[in-house]
Design brief:
Elements lengths: L1 H8 L3 E2 L4 H6 L4 E2 L3 E6 L5 H14 L4 E5 L4 H10 L7 E5 L23 H15 L3 E5 L1 H8 L2 H18 L2 E6 L9 H5 L2 E8 L7 E9 L8 E7 L2 E5 L16 E2 L4 H6 L4 E2 L3 E7 L4 H14 L4 E5 L4 H10 L4 H6 L3 E5 L7 H13 L5 E5 L1 H7 L3 H17 L3 E8 L18 E10 L2 E11 L8 E7 L2 E7 L3 E2 L7 E2 L14
Parallel strand pairs: 3-7, 3-8, 4-5, 4-6, 6-7, 14-18, 14-19, 15-16, 15-17, 17-18
Antiparallel strand pairs: 1-2, 8-9, 9-10, 10-11, 12-13, 19-20, 20-21, 21-22, 23-24
Length: about 500
């Protein structure tokens, strides 16, 4: 116990009430220090502040919410929308008279608009002295800024409050709604830590929220932007994935079989767990079905699989799976299969990462299919950042010994194909699907053009989807230009003599 007390006195970390934020801050807020939480109205500052106090109440600490901009009723309503009760948390309100129409409360409510700055600050000090809280949320500094009517006086008052709270041993969150058109960086110099919440309006779809830790003295934190959402229950934060924080702990080599002998032969015996396979080709060639085949085969051996779909509804997926003889519903009921349909217009990149991490770390998934990256690209149109994020995701999954499939649709059906983005250098294996035409019939072809972890066939084989599943035929003899999408039948006698495959 004495060790814990010494840690708190030295500014050691205390929980913010949000495990993800504690991870970003390397333990939480610094005890007995002042922190600045800034963001425009609607960014989530009040919700974060309430979660901080609720965590303190859970630990038996005295907590105080000082509000100069919202009434107690408004705070109670915010809390109830998340299913919280504020019982046990002291709320001290300084509100304009028009926000309270109850004559019985005229003696218990102090009106900030009727007070000078010094009187307001003194009332705050008196309330802190009465409650003796361990945690304080001060909402907001914008009201103090308006009463100060000058940058110098405002800074002096904030500095005086900082010293006052330090003497009282309080851990404080100052909320600031950034009503000033120019960022007041002088506050950054006064605060021990600074966290900014941002709300971004997209050209289409839901708004995106993200946070960034600008500063935390004496501690290494996880920098950069971290996506978050506000849902019933509070802020849900998705820390930016850093693959190096999840090193490879060493795994036994393991190969995934498709259950189709010719396909396994094409890829050199099987695909290795801990690698990523890019399945690329025009629409309708069977890319998604190929990813499903490997997931289904893995589940038959007892593994768990996750398919994240940007393009198909669950109902259509289940009918398609049943149409090729794969009963995904049976594995879903047993807890081996997870199908998650996501909307690119609603999903942030960080939320996708959080979804994948949850299924890998909490559910034990070891086969992941992202179908398709074309849909995901719409959620993150900045291609350079998409490639960087995919690099982190794929590195993380490889280090977790997960077999990953990326489905990428090329623009066009036949002839010249265009890739919406190049992920071949991030992939350990690449399977290429193509259409070709012969005897008045459209057929499909498959080839393995890359495999880092071993040898593979250089042949092109016919690829068929039937009611019984996937069938891979022998090498295509007598065709030229199949991979270009405009093949020509030239007869086997005109082709170069090639060694027979091992199959």
């Amino acid at each position: 116990m004495s060790g814990d007390r010494e840690l708190l006195e030295d500014g050691g970390p205390i929980s913010s009430g949000l495990p993800a934020l504690d991870y970003i801050l390397s333990g939480g807020f610094a005890a007995r220090r002042v922190h600045l939480i800034e963001g425009e109205p609607g960014a989530g500052k009040t919700t974060l502040g309430l979660q901080f106090l609720l965590e303190g109440r859970r630990k038996g600490e005295r907590c105080l919410y000082i509000t100069l901009s919202e009434s107690k009723e408004e705070l109670t309503h915010v809390a109830s929308s998340h299913g919280w009760s504020l019982d046990g948390i002291e709320i001290f309100e300084l509100v304009p008279p028009e926000l309270s129409l109850d004559p019985e409360q005229e003696q218990s409510i102090v009106y900030a608009s009727d007070l000078e700055l010094g009187e307001t600050v003194q009332l705050v000090k008196d309330e802190v002295g009465r409650v003796a809280p361990a945690r304080v949320v001060f909402d907001s500094l914008s009201e103090i800024r308006l009463l100060a009517q000058g940058a110098l006086r405002f800074r002096r008052q904030v500095l005086a409050l900082k010293h006052f709270f330090a003497q009282r041993g309080c851990t404080v969150l100052f909320l600031d709604d950034l009503t000033e058109t120019i960022d007041d960086l002088s506050l950054h110099s006064l605060a021990h830590g600074v966290v900014r919440l941002e709300q971004l309006a997209m050209n289409y779809g839901a708004e995106r929220r993200r946070l960034r830790v600008h500063k935390m003295r004496g501690r290494r934190f996880h920098g950069g932007y971290h996506d978050f959402v506000i849902r019933a229950g509070g802020l849900q934060i998705f820390p930016r994935l850093v693959a190096s924080d999840h090193p490879d702990e060493g795994h036994e080599p393991k190969q995934a079989k498709s259950g189709v002998a010719a396909l396994d032969s094409l890829v050199g015996g099987g695909l290795d767990y801990g690698t990523c396979t890019l399945v690329i080709g025009p629409s309708g060639t069977g890319k998604s079905t190929l990813g499903l085949l490997y997931a289904h085969s893995a589940m038959q051996t007892g593994d768990k699989a996750l398919i994240v779909s940007f393009d198909e509804t669950r109902g259509i997926f289940m009918r398609r799976a049943a149409g090729v003889g794969m009963d995904a519903g049976r594995f879903e009921e047993s807890g081996q299969f997870f199908y998650r349909q996501v909307d690119p217009a609603e999903l942030s990149p960080g939320e996708l990462t959080g979804l994948i991490r949850h299924h890998v770390e909490e559910e034990g998934v070891c086969v992941v299919v992202l179908d398709s990256l074309t849909g995901y690209q719409q959620a993150m149109p900045e291609e350079n950042f998409l490639l960087l994020q995919m690099h982190e995701i794929l590195t993380y999954l490889n280090q977790q010994n997960v077999l990953t499939f990326l489905i990428l649709t090329q623009a066009g059906m036949i002839g010249q194909m265009q890739n919406p983005l190049d992920l071949t250098y991030l992939s350990d294996s690449v399977l290429l699907l193509r259409y070709f035409e012969t005897e008045g019939e459209i057929r499909r072809a498959i080839s393995a053009v890359k495999k880092r972890t071993g040898s593979h066939e250089s042949s092109i084989r016919e690829f068929r989807i039937t009611a019984g599943g996937i069938d891979v035929g022998p090498r295509l003899e007598g065709f030229r230009g199949v991979l270009t999408g405009v093949p020509q039948y030239v007869g086997t006698e005109t082709l170069m003599i090639r060694p027979e495959s091992s199959s």
